[in-house]
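Most newcomers find our protein records easier to grasp once they have seen one. A learned vocabulary of local backbone shapes supplies the integers on the structure line. Here is such a record, shown just as it appears in the course material:
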Amino acid sequence: MTTSIRRRTVVTAALACLALSAVPALADDKFELKIATVAPDKTPWADLLKGYKKTIEKKSGGRIKVRVFLGGTMGDENETVKMTARGQLSGVGASTGAVATLVEELAAIEIPFLFNNANEADYVLDKFLMVPMEEKFRAKGLVLGFWSENGFRHFGASFPVHKPGDLKNKKMRSQESYVHIEMWKQLQAAAQAIPTTEVTTALTTGSVEGFDQALLYMVAGAWHTKVKHVTLSAHIYQPAVIAFNKDWFDKLPADLQKLLLDEGRAITRKGRAAIRKMNPKLVDIIKKGDGKTPVEIITLSPAERAAFVKATAGVRGTVKGKSESTKKIVEIIEAGLADFKAKAKAK
């Protein structure tokens, strides 16, 4: 075979492969959505994903088969986020703190004391952040499916926490997020970044003396059984995200893409409401501790809360200085909060 003929053969084969790869999915093609979360079974998170699975499989007419991996069986939060971006998983349900290890701008949501209540957070996330964050996700190989809920984070420790000084030099677990690490730094705690799946062991061995976490996961992971005090500080609002691998999502027919997004965003409000409704019950569970030693629940006074706000105020500047892109997201959040407060005042 001559060189020219060989070259034409190679080119023809390459073009044929390209043509095949460009063929759009057919209406009766079958797809598998493998979605992972660290949330254990029999929790609101697990129930939400199981309900999502049932709805998607039914409304897709079986064209999408959904497999939900619970309890960190596919790895910790940070790892499953990366696996989804790489295409090893087609979906992930994780805290914004975990997803922010890849989509750095998402960390802006977790600036301490940014939101005073859940209504503020919902308004900003739904009306101001969805569109700009969709672009950021795609740039990292992900598709932002829909928001979900972890809730406000609170301090749990072997010692009582009433003021910032109580955390000075204490060995605290930090989520693997620069915003969280910066918060602990400004509180002068000796924080260690530890994966979610390793926290129980760290608390049991005493390598850390405390943590911060939303009530839901505090109970789901049984972290509350390893401490003696929980302070209802509500210092960071942490939503959660269901995201898809971009390449996997883009290969779906348009109607299935729409189904995944529409059904997911339809249950966002329901999921938030279900988890928030549980909070008083979760506090009651936490009070019981391990069943032998009760846990003291500490509620901050306005003055005590103000001391924490002041002590962590510098985190916002650190986040804004991370990049121009992150600074822009912080400014969008600030604009959303101003709009929320203006409308509330006008009522």
